[in-house]
Specification:
The protein is of the alpha+beta class. It contains five helices and 15 strands. The strands form four sheets. It has a five-stranded antiparallel β-sheet. Strands 1, 2, 4 and 5 form a four-stranded antiparallel β-sheet that branches. A hairpin with a 6-residue loop joins strand 11 and strand 12. It is globular. Bound molecules: 2-amino-4-trifluoromethylsulfanyl-butyric acid and cobalt (II) ion (CO).
Amino acid sequence: MIYIKTAEEIEGMRKACDLVSRTLGEVASWVKPGITTRKLDNVAREFILDNGGKPACLGYHGFPGTLCIEVNETVVHGFPSGYALREGDIIGTDCVVELNGFHGDSCYTFTVGKVDEKTLDLLRTTKESLYKGISVALPGKRIGDISNTIQTYCEKAGYNVVREMCGHGIGKNMHEDPEVPNYGRRGIGPILKPGMCIAIEPMINLGGKKVVFEENGWECRTRDRKPSAHFEHTILITEGDPEILTTFNYIDESLAKTAVETLNR
Ligand code: MF3
Ligand code: CO
């Protein structure tokens, strides 16, 4: 069942989404060569707890982190570990925060030092596809319109859409109806209505669309071990343009600061 949020619930969603956005802003300031993914996970967990939230992924069906860690060919649901980031890596950090009973979900894929041009283009395209998808999330449109917009944009650029995981409704639960695939036909699926909250999260591969899961059933990587990118926002359907409840502004601020520090070194 697709749940339409009340004004009060929407206010709760805004706050949870602001906290997850600020958490990723904090994580952004720690992403550099030599840092372990476990350290990033600790930074995120402590930030969320210090701000009165709960790390919603931690313990979710047994998941062992606050962040899903997605280094290079890891598509989703990677575990925090002792792996130290290297120059040239990309790392997605996917985070869900629960605050006062509401969930905010966002993901950003960072570069570590200098990254090759092909991978940078994959990142730009994937992020852009997220905003293209959001731009058609208008009342009266259907989920398939979002799906098809993302798929078309990424495939035109020569990339492939992961099929195994989808975006989703979100609210009092991390995952609610409807499913929001990143591929599919225009004009199909549930109709978008004001008050719906959905998380849109394109997972896009540089190479083939095929993925494999590790023995633990969680960690998912590309079959050809080429890089995969992932960006996610939680949004609200309104009477007009969608309201993007999460934001990358905190991340942009952190990254701008790091860039200035690097220049001054
Ligand atoms: N953004 C991810 C998702 O929507 C976060 C869930 S990770 C999990 O599936 F560990 F909590 F499952
Ligand atoms: Co999600």
